[in-house]
Amino acid sequence: MAKIKSEKYQIGEKEINVNFNCNSRGVFSCNLHTTLQEELGLKGRLEFPSLKELEETIDKAVLEYKNSKTSHELIIGIKYGASGQFSRNEKGETFPEFLGAWSKYSISASFREINSIIGFDFRVLIKENRDGRIKYFEANRVSDSPQRVRMNRVVGDFVSNAAAYLQDNEKLIKYTEAAFNNLIAINKQLQRASEFLLKLAASEQLELILNSENQNLLQAHETPATHP
Q1: CA 216 to CA 210: how far, in whole Å?
Q2: Of 45, 53, 87, 207, whose CB count within 10 A is highest?
Q3: Which residues contact 100 (CB under 8 A, 6 or more apart)?
Q4: For the chain, what is the domain count?
């Protein structure tokens, strides 16, 4: 396959090179950088019977990209799941949200392992609306990724990273500092509970502790909260 020519395309702050090739059958082709695929909505490899058709396809997509109306906003994606005892209330009744074979909150657990599991996580996303086409991107604090600012989307104190793909059980809410800080506080509570359970399970005095008459076991043995 012979290289015919190269062209540079400006996408935002990025200048991306594309090599145009032609094989022995007279088929013209090119392989597109991931950025061009994501931003222009084109396939990774394009093939046409003529160089003109190939170039026009890319040129049209680039023109539509440059003329499109685009907006960005910060979103928080929240993920929660549970199984076993954590999917039931104190009476042993399954929460309605966990009923049915395909509950979006259910976490699969093997019978060979602990089957009572709880999971919680969240992330900040940048939502892009380009002429009605919605895309999401992972987001980091600008202070954590200053090198990405010139070449990526910046919204408030956050800069985009890789493209993000939403999960079925991911709840989306608009970003606010209050919501973000409250989610961090929830995460810290779960981390402290996990640390307490780890120390308890690894303790040589596990049996003594569990057989004590202390009714406030968690409060008595949990790791004190730390504050930034």
Answers
A1: 11
A2: 87
A3: none
A4: 3
